[in-house]
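Async update (no meeting this week)

Hi team, since we skipped the sync, here's where things stand on the single-chain job. The sequence we agreed to prioritize is pasted below, unchanged from the tracker. I ran it this morning and attached the output directly underneath so nobody has to dig for it. Comments welcome in thread, and please keep replies under the output.
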Amino acid sequence: MNRWQRAVVGVLLLLEMAVVAQPAVRAGVGDLTPANRPIGPHQGMLLASCTILLVTAGAGLATMLVRPRSRTWVATFTAAHAAAAALGWAHGLPLLTLVSALAASAVPALVLLPEQPPQ
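Output:
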């Protein structure tokens, strides 16, 4: 990857981490569901999926920064995001589906673009 590809991928990963951290933050402060009813399966699915996405995006970002030539993290990243998109679709969570599908398509496309030779 060249410099602009790394910059765009880094911004996408940071943006994704900021978006998927919201359910965890809201659950931590008790804002996810009203106090009079327990957390249901949809909220639990959202929290678990967002946690997995947060970890894989963070691991991808760290790998990209430490080893810029490495591309092995893209397979795990794409698989986790495809699975989260499918779970979001099956459980009726459109934001999870959208974020996962966009990240699963945009990040690997940018990472796997061939480098342009200097002119």
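Quick observations from my side:
The mean pLDDT is 84.
The longest helix spans residues 3-28.
Reply here if anything looks off.
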